[in-house]
């Protein structure tokens, strides 16, 4: 199946026979590799140093030969050298600041932006089947944070919904407002909740403290993106998270869907009903040995996640991340084929660096400031 057919027919692309999937993803990535090796002087130098040419990529096993860009390069002041497209063609500039405060900058040109929007929309339709309803977005709007990749990815859902509301404004979150929105949509449309796990968790904590138990709709979804570790380093338990959603929102765990991605890559892996995050067929994840990242590990082995993405024409989106996890190539009960990915943790010494971390850290700092304010004495006026 060719690249553009995969984007336009996700229901078929995610269900290719194993041999067909291997051939199609290899062709898509080889062609994209050739595009950057030919047009990008910086990347071509990396290819020459590695002694690899696009013509040498013919099988899935050959994809490990494609030179990778360490994710830290997107934090460098001269990150523009990574660009294949001219800066004048850049349409989107996505940033992510983690606990270290140094932003990653990933620039998308016009062609990449069109492909990414098409791909994400196709995946939402494929995995969520959403075509109407209301979305409660527990995150800022794109108007407030146009540079945040997580918010951009969530925003694509708006085109599939009849109504929506963004609850985080000026980095403040009011769970009572979220509850009022959900109650306002009751009996009118299917209600979905979208946001990073920590903010969904704040809503659940509010409902628990107030002993409020909602019963949302049979097809309601909770869709999350942004990682399961807080900026403090504390992990969020997925099992406890799902249990509280069932208890306080009345949504079964099968309708809780997490996604995995990073702003430097266009790859977005979306969970199916069996909670396996499926890698789209225009992308490939290679798990590398922690001690020697030139070595690719077999499926099921834990190592450093490398993401190879065929959507990007702006820069070579062949990224060696700071994430650790595994890929699974066994058949999924949902019927989709190809790879699924599991994220485990960050590499030791790597900072937490996603949009959700930045939002949570800022919200917490604002709440601490508000709690520490000293009340001013009331003034009196002489009669």
In summary, what is this structure?
The chain is of the alpha/beta class.
Give an overview of the whole structure.
One of its GO terms (biological process) is bioluminescence. InterPro entries: ANL_N_sf, CapK_Type1_Caps_Biosynth, LuxE. One of its GO terms (molecular function) is long-chain fatty acid--protein ligase activity. This is Acyl-protein synthetase. It comes from Streptomyces subrutilus. This protein has 383 residues and is an alpha/beta fold. It has one domain: Rossmann fold, CATH 3.40.50. Helix content is 32%, strand content 20%. The protein has 10 helices and 14 strands. The chain has helices at residues 3-8, 10-13, 18-39, 41-50, 110-128, 149-155, 175-184, 197-209, 238-249, 355-372; strands at residues 69-70, 90-97, 103-109, 134-137, 163-166, 191-195, 222-225, 256-261, 268-271, 277-278, 283-288, 303-309, 318-328, 340-346. The strands form 2 sheets. Strands 1, 4, 5, 6, 7, 8, 9, 10, 11, 12, 13 and 14 form a 12-stranded mixed beta sheet that branches. It has a two-stranded antiparallel sheet with strand order 2-3. Residues 368-383 have low confidence and may be disordered.
H and E string: HHHHEEEHEHEHEHEHEEEEEEEH
Q: Quick one: overall form?
A: globular
How much strand content do the residues show?
15-25%
Query: Separation of termini?
Result: 86 Å
Largest sheet: 12 strands, mixed
> How many separate structural domains?
1
Secondary structure topology:
Blueprint: H1 3-8, H2 10-13, H3 18-39, H4 41-50, E1 69-70, E2 90-97, E3 103-109, H5 110-128, E4 134-137, H6 149-155, E5 163-166, H7 175-184, E6 191-195, H8 197-209, E7 222-225, H9 238-249, E8 256-261, E9 268-271, E10 277-278, E11 283-288, E12 303-309, E13 318-328, E14 340-346, H10 355-372
Helix pairs in contact: 3-4, 7-8, 8-9
């Amino acid at each position: 199946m060719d690249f553009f057919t995969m984007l336009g027919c996700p229901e078929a692309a995610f269900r290719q026979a194993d041999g067909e999937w291997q051939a199609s993803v290899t062709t898509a990535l080889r062609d994209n590799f050739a595009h950057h090796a030919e047009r990008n002087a910086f990347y071509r130098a990396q290819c020459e140093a590695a002694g690899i040419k696009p013509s040498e990529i013919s099988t899935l096993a050959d994809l490990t030969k494609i030179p990778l860009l360490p994710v830290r390069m997107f934090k460098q002041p001269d990150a523009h050298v990574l660009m294949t497209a001219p800066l004048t063609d850049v349409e989107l500039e996505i940033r992510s600041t983690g606990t270290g405060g140094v932003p990653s900058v990933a620039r998308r040109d016009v062609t990449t932006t069109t492909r990414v929007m098409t791909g994400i929309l196709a995946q939402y339709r494929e995995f969520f089947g959403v075509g109407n309803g209301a979305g409660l977005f527990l995150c800022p709007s794109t108007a407030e944070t146009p540079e945040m990749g997580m918010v951009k990815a969530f925003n694509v859902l708006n085109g599939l919904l009849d109504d929506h509301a963004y609850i985080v404004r000026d980095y403040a979150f009011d769970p009572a407002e979220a509850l009022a929105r959900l109650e306002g949509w009751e009996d009118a449309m299917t209600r979905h909740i979208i946001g990073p796990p920590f903010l969904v968790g704040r809503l659940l904590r509010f409902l628990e403290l107030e002993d409020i138990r909602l019963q949302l709709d049979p097809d309601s979804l909770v869709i999350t993106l942004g990682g399961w570790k807080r900026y403090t380093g504390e992990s969020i338990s997925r099992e406890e998270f799902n249990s509280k959603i069932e208890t306080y929102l009345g949504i079964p765990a099968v309708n809780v869907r997490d996604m995995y991605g990073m702003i430097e890559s266009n790859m977005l892996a979306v969970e199916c009903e069996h909670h396996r995050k499926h890698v789209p067929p225009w992308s490939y994840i290679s798990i590398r040995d922690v001690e020697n990242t030139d070595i690719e590990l077999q499926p099921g082995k834990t190592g450093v996640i490398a993401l190879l993405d065929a959507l990007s024409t702006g820069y070579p989106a062949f990224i060696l991340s700071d994430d650790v996890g595994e890929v699974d190539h066994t058949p999924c009960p949902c019927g989709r084929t190809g790879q699924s990915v599991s994220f485990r943790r960050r590499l030791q010494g790597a900072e937490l660096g996603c949009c959700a971390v930045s939002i949570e850290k800022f919200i917490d700092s604002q709440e601490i400031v508000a709690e520490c304010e000293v009340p001013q004495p009331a003034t009196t006026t002489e009669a």
